Amino acid sequence: MQGYWVILRSEMFSLFISPATYVASFYFLSLIGVGFRFFIESFSSTNWILPPLSSLVLGLIFGAPALIPFLTMRSFAEERRLGTLETLMSAPVNSWALVLGKWSASYLFFILIASGAFCFPIILSLFFPEQAKSLGFARFEHWIGGASFLFVFGASFTAIGIFASSTTKNQMVAGMLTFTLLTLYISIMAFSFGEAESLQNIDSPIQFLRACMGSLDDGLDKLQHFAVGVIDIGTILNQVIVLLFFLILSTIQVERLRV
Amino acid sequence: MTVETKPLPIIEVINLRKRYGLIQALKGISFSVGRGEIVGFLGPNGAGKSTTLRILSGLIPADSGEAKVCGVDLAEEEGEVRNHIGYLAENNPLPEDLRVIEYLKFRAHLKGLEGSRKRERIRIVLDICDLERSVSERKIGNLSKGFRQRVGIADSLLAEPRLVILDEPTIGLDPRQSAITRKMMERLRGEVSFLLSSHILSEVEACCDRMIILSHGQIVAEGTLQELQKKFVNKTIFEVVTCGNRIDLQRIVRQVDSTCELLQDDPVEISGKRRFIFSTEKGESLAEKILKVLLSENSLSLSEFQIARPDLETIFLRATKKNWEEQDLLSRRNRRTNLVSGRKTPNIQS
């Protein structure tokens, strides 16, 4: 893994100095903030059965296709356009470290922005402690569950973005491809939203696999568990599989550029 | 009695082949580069120079053959090779938004240099490449082509490599900046081995110990300039500047060597003196004999005598000409065969 930390540091640096990152983060957080405010205001009149904090997580998940392309589109596409990928690969650093370093930087930045969104309920709790308590913001397990759900999905989403960036020399194409892939993935999960598979009523091996590992199409189901602080290992495993799948694809793509 | 052991070469290539789809880029080349040697890689566009350099720097794999760089087998440990070499890619791609010093620090970290060693190496390469402080603080995107090239070379020298591979290091540079690059190589001569490709023949002639000429993926010539001159130019050409006339001069020269040929019928005339160009197949020693005879002839009033040695350009053109003709003949024959059999020809380029 020689070079991983160097790549990570350099990628973080380039994300921090890129104006596109700040513009995207600002608009993203503003929209999430406005949406969260209206949701909390009208929470009593909605029939939302989950803790209100889960709405913020869901907002971040559904808003991810608009944010993640800005974090990942530069990573490989820009290097390929400038030709610096060749210079990078002439140094003693392997493709896996390269992909992992770039992914880690984008993911850390995603966590940073998501943490920014979590400041909204914290601010609410500071200024209106009574209302915040009645909305369940004081319950620690809701925070842990929500953050875990978001960070797990964020990891696989950024991996999709890194893969999209490794396939083209054009940043815009990489960005649009990331947006399309994420929208497609979220749509599949959203349209198949329903009851989560339970380990108790298993009739077939497929049901067993679905219950153990989750599946591609019912990841969002598990939000109901995470929202109340129940960490679902199947969902985490599911997203780790998606994450590894796209990171391996990106590594293969980078290796393919050598030939 | 002591047995003298020959040091292992820094590069050893045996029967290296590489194909890109229908194009056979390398057709089984073999060569070696010794320690501390500066070797020039010459060849027309598409000859396979960059492919060879990219294989040797571990960027792309070869299809077959054996290549050892710094004693490391590329087929087995291609990643390990990158610890021992410095590489300057063709066109020298660099990140535009970093300062020179930031870029060199980043590359030093990537190559495993830390702390005081990193600082020391950066200082040394900045000095070798003549990148003074005012330049090292500037953004790479704002630098001129020459400075960018020097940044690339500085990067390739960072980790004290035993071998530096430079792909067209002086392309697009003005003569002054090319001279700086040459000076840099001269400074490191003997310590570091250099393998460089270039189209600027005069430059290769000036700084390389040995040349390898590639054409259509094959080595067509290899050796020192003197060896190549001997191999490809078997006639000695000499120029005589005199006030005498052509008939007298030719008569005297023919007395020494009857096969000696006058290359121009109308000599160039400058302020009453004429420049005659002769060629002989009997070498430089005969030309010297002719000079002695001409000096003894007072009527000719000889003012200049010069043996013209063929330059690398002449050698390059002769070395690649035969190969071009063969390839041309081969492709024409292929086309004819395919036309007769009614097949569509795949467009084979070299």
Labels describing this entry:
heterodimer, A: 259 residues, mainly alpha, 77% helix, B: 350 residues, alpha/beta, Rossmann fold, Alpha-Beta Plaits, 2 domains, six-stranded mixed β-sheet, 39% helix
How would you sum up this structure, described in words?
- The complex is a heterodimer of chains A (259) and B (350).
- Chain A is 77% helix and 0% strand.
- By secondary structure, chain A is mainly alpha-helical.
- The longest helix of chain A has 30 residues.
- Chain B has 350 residues and is α/β, with parallel strands linked by helices.
- Chain B has 2 domains: 220 residues, P-loop containing nucleotide triphosphate hydrolases (Rossmann fold, 3-Layer(aba) Sandwich); 75 residues, ACT domain (Alpha-Beta Plaits, 2-Layer Sandwich).
- In chain B, strands 6-7-8-3-9-10 form a 6-stranded mixed beta sheet, with helices on both faces. In chain B, strands 11, 12, 13, 14 and 15 form a 5-stranded antiparallel beta sheet that branches. Chain B has a 4-stranded antiparallel beta sheet with strand order 2-1-4-5.
- In chain B, a hairpin with a 2-residue loop joins β4 and β5.
- Chain B starts with 10 loop residues before the first strand and ends in a 9-residue tail after the last helix.
- The C terminus of chain B is likely disordered.
- The chains are: A mainly alpha (259), B alpha/beta (350).
- At the A-B interface, α1 and α4 of A face α3 of B.
